[in-house]
Specification:
The protein contains 29 helices and 8 strands. It has 972 residues and is mostly helical. 22% of the residues are buried.
């Protein structure tokens, strides 16, 4: 069964757990859906249900009339026409709806009004013998009660202390209801799967009438309903004539049958009825359903009184923002329960129980206000309203008191503060504001650019905590009453809410004032404590790099840096003893550890930076000393490349002993500075440590190296002397070779190979110069070896004789390159002055060469040839000057092309070679005539522009004078 007793069982669980049988929640839900489907057409409304007083199954003295043998119960049920198969359903085969087999569980149709007891007082029935029927056995057997679920009010097996006759009557009623529901389902299934092919559709006239008045959509709905109705009539008529089909048309007409036994004494019965009627009119508890309804309402109200409205407990202090979020989550849950679940559950209980009573004073389906106002139902709802309002008020008062009690954690020193000018005079570790209970809120002390501050603004605490309290009090004024949801046939206003606690309620005002007073006073020592950390602001924001740079710029000595390092160490130790990790001030737990660690870390960083700076300073000094030693070694150990180099090294080595002494004195002073680092127990890096001892060992190494170098130089002098003899012989041979080559080369005079000749001439000239420089070097070495110098007169004479020949081919090649650029580049980019200068310079250079080659006719012809080339280009200057005149426009270029007979577009952007190809040198007069005409036109145009400008200025002066005269007349 669904509730309290599980007497009719059709589940197969007993095979696995023969000692425990219950109806699962999923089964119950599916059964309810199936029951809703089967009773949707009110097919089960005609089931005869006896009055409540006739359905009690409980036997006061259960030792009498109770059944102990399952066979007796089975025989009694057979007398009522109930077979054991009735309780069982097919397990693994599909049900044919056209057959008479049952397909719905009997438990779905159990009449719950046969319940006999309150589950709160029947604990002593556990573990007693019971009788039940299960699917595998298909007969009644004895079992033991295992447990009772107070949430669903279900027992896990049948009780034998009930009246067996009424138990049989209960089962018979359920069987009839199941038969009716299954028959209705079969009928609807049959009607649904019949194809009418339009036989039962509305007539043509009815169709046109509905379409004209309502449209296609309404007609579609009407057509479906019409066809379903007539199909049902046709199927029902067929079933009445065909008796072989187990399906019957369900009957929707039902009536109440009169009681079978009429009263014996009519007068006595009428008197009892009259007294009973008067009692029922005076009291609300005239029906057990009302009593149970009020009991359930009271249970819901008690649950509301226990709801958590605020967060009033925490394992550790939390930030205000987090506390606000937790409160918001908690209050949202509670408000959702109050505004929805509480109302829904209360309405559900009242609707479920009051709907059992039906028509009368507790008819929740009443639709007229004048009737509702005189009904007991209104008094009952008012009673429920008062109970709910009392529960809501108790909830808010208790929650508010717990909220304030949690936040105000009893610190008498905070409440004793007077005045607004409190200052923190004690040390930073000991707090005179230790509360009796743990701190509530977490604060992180941080350092700002201007002053220290907390992670949460202390000024926000009073307002935020007050808003949390007031917001929930305001929200609780919007909890709807149950009337609109219960009395759905009446229309109520939308703003019907339960009366809650007001913001100005005396208890609320007292709690709020206590909260605000405590937190306003707690802010004074909190802010005074933070102000004490302003002394550390400069340290906190000190930039280590800038600090070190300042020390470096001050150029402090090592002893002064030593004092700075000692000062930083003392300040760090002072911080460790004067700044706490955390401190409690009233309701606030302040975390100072990050700031303390940051300050200590800053002192450590400054100390480390100073030690590092001093280390780097000593490293640089030591490295400089080592560099000097290395420089001495490198200078002495240079591999000589010549005899000159050996003499330079020997001269340097004479000063090495004195240099080593000075470096030793310098290193002794650096060792004193290294002792400063050792005094602070600062470990030098391995590289610095190695560098220090290398510097101390270098003097001996340098002096030892001097002896080795001197021995090496003796052997090198002999090697260079031998090399000098070989170099002298090679030098003499080179002079003879170059002299012979130049003598042969100067006989060449082919003007067609100007470029090749100029390149070769430059190369030979460079070779001669190199030989002269090499001769000077070898003569200096001859002096060092105390040998006779080498004569260089023949080289000087060779260079002098070759200079004129080099000049000829160099000037010729350079001119040809210039001429190529003048002709090949666009005419607009040619500099005429540069052309003129190039021509004149080349002409002058060639003229100067004529006297030098009078004895060499072939070369003289070459000079005269290049003079003719230069003179041949001079006429091109006139053409260039005319074509580069600024007044030539496109029309003039076109005229030139037309007169010369050229088909093409000309402009100054064209190279001069184009003009030479088209014979412009033969049309010099034509070009001059066009250019002169263009200049004349331009001059005439400029004259017209000047005249127009003059006239415009005259007119402008006239207008200006006239305006001045008008202004003067206006002023007069």
């Amino acid at each position: 069964m669904q509730r309290k007793t599980a007497r009719i069982i059709s589940q197969p669980q007993l095979d696995q757990m023969p000692w425990r049988i219950s109806l699962p929640a999923t089964k119950r839900q599916s059964s309810k859906e199936l029951h809703r489907l089967s009773t949707s057409s009110k097919t089960a409304d005609h089931i005869l249900r006896a009055p409540k007083c006739d359905k009690y199954q409980f036997i006061c003295n259960f030792t009498h009339r109770r059944l102990t043998d399952p066979r007796e119960l089975e025989a009694l049920l057979k007398e009522k026409g109930i077979d054991n198969v009735t309780f069982c359903l097919p397990q693994w085969e599909q049900i044919d709806l056209s057959s008479g087999a049952h397909f719905m569980p009997l438990a779905l149709f159990d009449d719950c009004e046969y319940d006999t007891f309150d589950p709160g007082v029947v604990g002593f029935w556990r573990n007693m013998e019971v009788i039940a029927i299960t699917t595998p056995y298909a007969r009644w057997r004895s079992y033991t009660v295992n447990n009772h679920d107070p949430c669903t009010n279900q027992w896990e097996l049948y009780f034998p202390f009930e009246d067996p006759k009424k138990f049989a009557q209960r089962i018979g009623t359920a069987v009839k209801a199941r038969d009716t529901a299954e028959n209705a389902i079969r009928f609807r299934f049959l009607c649904k799967h019949i194809t009418s092919n339009g036989c039962f559709a509305p007539g043509r006239a009815l169709e046109q009438s509905i379409l004209r008045r309502a449209g296609d959509e309404i007609y579609g709905v009407f057509k479906n309903l019409y066809e379903d109705y007539h199909i049902g009539l046709a199927v029902g008529q067929h079933l009445r004539t065909d008796g072989s089909v187990p399906i019957k048309q369900p009957s929707f007409s039902h009536s109440l049958k009169p009681p079978k036994d009429a009263p014996v004494d009519e007068l006595k019965w009428e008197r009892i009825v009259h007294l009973l009627d008067r009692f029922r009119r005076r009291t609300l508890l005239c029906d057990t359903n009302v009593f149970h309804a009020l009991r359930l309402v009271n249970q819901e109200c008690e649950m509301v009184r226990k709801l958590p409205m605020f967060v009033v407990a925490s394992d550790k202090p939390i930030p205000l923002e987090e506390y606000e979020k937790l409160n918001l989550t908690q209050t949202s849950k509670t408000l959702k329960y109050l505004q929805n679940t509480w109302i829904e559950r209360t309405t559900m209980h009242l609707h479920r129980l009051l709907s059992r009573i039906g028509n009368g004073h507790f008819n929740i389906g009443v639709g007229r206000w004048e009737i509702y106002n005189v009904m007991k139902l209104k008094r009952l709802i008012e009673q429920v309203l008062y109970r709910m309002q009392d529960a809501l008020r108790d909830l808010l008062l208790d929650s508010t008191a717990a909220y304030v009690h949690y936040l105000v954690n009893d610190c008498s020193a905070v409440l004793a503060i007077e005045g607004e000018d409190y200052s923190w005079d004690g040390n930073l570790i000991d707090s005179p504001f230790e509360p009796q209970r743990p701190a509530v809120f977490y604060l992180l002390l941080e350092m700002g650019p201007d002053m220290p501050y907390y992670s949460t603004d202390p000024e926000s605490f009073p307002e935020t905590l007050r808003h949390i309290l007031d917001d929930i009090l305001r929200a609780c004024h919007f909890i709807h009453t149950i009337e609109p949801s219960l009395m759905q046939s009446l229309i109520f206003a939308e703003n019907l809410y339960l009366s809650s606690v007001g913001l100005l309620d005396c208890a609320i005002v007292k709690q709020r004032e206590a909260l605000l007073e405590y937190y306003h006073k707690a802010l004074l020592p909190l802010q005074a404590y933070a102000a004490r950390y302003a002394a550390y602001r400069e340290l906190f924001f000190t930039n280590v790099k800038e600090f070190v740079e300042q020390i470096k710029n001050a150029d402090k000595s090592s002893s002064e840096i030593k004092e700075d390092i000692a000062f930083q160490i003392r300040m760090r130790e002072n911080l460790e003893h004067t700044v706490p990790l955390c401190i409690v001030i009233g309701p606030f737990w302040i975390n100072v550890q990050p700031l303390r660690e940051a300050l200590i870390r800053k002192r450590q960083e400054l100390t480390a930076a100073l030690l590092k700076m001093l280390t780097e300073k000593l490293r640089i000094k030591t490295a400089d000393v080592i560099t000097c030693y290395n420089g001495i070694n490198e200078r002495m150990c240079e591999k000589p490349v010549s005899i000159e180099h050996i003499y330079d090294i020997r001269a340097y080595m004479e000063d090495v002993p004195e240099l080593v002494v000075r470096l030793e004195d310098r290193m002794r002073g650096i060792l004193y500075e290294y002792e400063i680092l050792e005094g602070f127990l600062h470990n030098l890096p391995d590289a610095d440590f190695q560098q220090k001892w290398n510097a101390l060992a270098y003097p001996r190494s340098v002096l030892k190296q001097m002896v080795s170098v001197q021995e090496f130089h003796e052997s090198e002098v002999d090697r260079f002397r031998k090399q000098q003899f070989a170099d002298e012989a090679a030098f003499t041979a080179s002079i003879e070779d170059i002299n012979a080559y130049i003598s042969k080369f100067t006989t060449l005079y082919d003007v067609s190979k100007v470029s090749e000749m100029s390149v070769e001439v430059r190369r030979l000239w460079k070779t001669v110069q190199e030989l002269i420089d090499q001769g000077h070097i070898m003569n200096r070495r001859q002096e060092l070896f105390e040998m006779a110098p080498i004569s260089l007169n023949n080289l000087y004479e060779l260079r002098s004789n070759f200079s004129a020949y080099r000049e000829l081919w160099t000037v010729a090649a350079d001119y040809l390159k210039l001429e190529e650029t003048w002709i090949g580049n666009p005419l607009a980019s040619v500099d005429l002055d540069g052309v003129r200068r190039g021509l004149q310079q080349t002409h002058d250079s060639l003229k100067d060469l004529l006297p030098l080659f009078r004895d060499q006719p072939q070369l003289l012809v070459v000079v005269e040839h290049f003079l003719q080339v230069v003179e041949a280009f001079r006429p091109n200057l006139d053409i260039m000057e005319l074509l580069k005149r600024p007044y030539l426009e496109a029309i003039h270029w076109g005229q030139l092309a037309k007169e010369i007979g050229l088909k093409g577009k000309l402009s100054v952007d064209v190279g001069f070679d184009v003009f030479l190809e088209h014979g412009f040198r033969d049309h010099l007069e034509t070009v001059r005539r066009v250019v002169v005409k263009a200049e004349q036109l331009r001059l005439e145009q400029e004259a017209r522009w000047a005249e127009e400008e003059r006239i415009r200025q005259i007119e402008e002066a006239y207008r200006r004078a006239r305006a001045e005269r008008r202004q003067n007349r206006t002023e007069i």
